[in-house]
Design a protein that fits this description.
The chain has one domain. Strands 2-1-3 form a three-stranded antiparallel sheet, covered by helices on one side. It is 23% helix and 32% strand. A hairpin with a 4-residue loop joins strand 1 and strand 2. It is of the alpha+beta class and 81 residues long.
Length: 81
């Protein structure tokens, strides 16, 4: 049984280069400011079966690295059948 899956890690990125979490407060106040932000992928992270995103670590740079972390996590924490 898998308890974690790989999912893209995304952040809001401002035209100035600043970033903001997609899970926090909205980084703009109005439609004019909204146009200055884009959603970008910054790597790969993990989503647990309970809806939690992330494992308390920096997202993996590659899909392969994320899958290796996921396999180790699932082997260690998934309930045994």
């Amino acid at each position: 049984m898998k308890i974690a899956n790989v999912t893209p890690a995304r952040v809001w990125k401002h035209k100035s280069g600043r970033t903001a979490s997609i899970y926090g407060a909205c980084p703009w106040y109005n439609e004019a400011q909204k146009a200055e932000w884009t959603l970008v992928q910054v790597g790969w992270t993990w989503e647990l079966s309970n809806g939690t995103v992330g494992l308390g670590r920096v997202p993996a740079k590659t899909l392969e690295e994320a899958e290796a972390v996921m396999a180790t996590f699932n082997a260690r924490f998934a309930p045994k059948a």
